[in-house]
Design brief:
The chain is mostly beta strands. It has helices spanning 15-18, 57-68, 164-171, and strands at residues 31-39, 42-51, 80-84, 88-91, 124-129, 135-142, 156-162, 175-176, 181-182, 186-193. It has a single domain, classed as Cyclophilin-like (Cyclophilin, Beta Barrel), CATH 2.40.100.10. The protein starts with 14 loop residues before the first helix and ends with a strand.
């Protein structure tokens, strides 16, 4: 009597199925925006921001659309409302409430997307938080490298790629404690996508 057996067919994996999933660089710049700044009505220069669309696509879209102003609200004409020398400069309140609130393109705010990108580079662009930890339009730019205390708390979405001297000029404007409101008017006179 011959033994019974059956063949088990195991299909070979195609090359694209067996290769590991390609990881995209979270700090790859996928989009660029600019902000032209005035201090007390005098041109202070341009800041160019590189955005990390691979890391936080929803947050980057929110920021880019606000730079463009294409949905009826945007950063053009808004102020840098807080200057903390040696730490950050803050702006992006599109509601005109001097930093007390903001508004996203998705509604009033949206949940923080993730905290993949660290605050370890001078000029890191990050979103400020609402009381509930959500994100709206308000943002800040770090003015020092060692800002790790912000990691896991704020969504970093890009970095300054040109015009850090303009950020330093903003940082140099004297501010009044305890709110750190600058004593000069610092406006985003124009902004958009490059």
């Amino acid at each position: 009597m011959e033994p019974e057996f059956s063949l088990l067919f195991i299909p070979q994996a195609r090359a694209d199925e067996s290769s590991p999933v390609e990881q995209k660089n979270p700090r790859e710049i996928t989009e660029k925006c600019f902000m032209d700044i005035t201090v007390d009505g005098v041109d202070a220069g341009r800041i160019v921001l590189g955005l990390y669309g691979n890391a936080v696509p929803k947050t980057v879209k929110n920021f880019a659309v606000l730079c463009e102003g294409s949905q009826g609200l945007g950063y053009k004409g808004t102020e840098f409302y807080r200057v903390v020398s040696g730490l950050t400069v803050q702006g992006g309140d599109v509601t005109g409430s001097h930093g007390k609130s903001g508004k996203s393109i998705y509604g009033s705010s949206f949940p923080a997307e993730n905290y993949k990108v660290k605050h370890d580079v001078e000029g890191t662009l990050s979103m400020a938080r609402t009381k509930d930890g959500d994100v709206d339009s308000r943002f800040f730019i770090t003015t020092r490298e060692d800002s790790g205390y912000l990691d896991g708390k704020f969504v970093a979405l890009g970095r300054v790629i040109a015009g850090m001297e303009v950020v330093k000029r903003i940082e140099g404007v004297k501010a009044t404690p305890p709110t750190n409101k600058p004593q000069k008017s610092i406006l985003i006179s124009n902004c958009g996508i490059l």
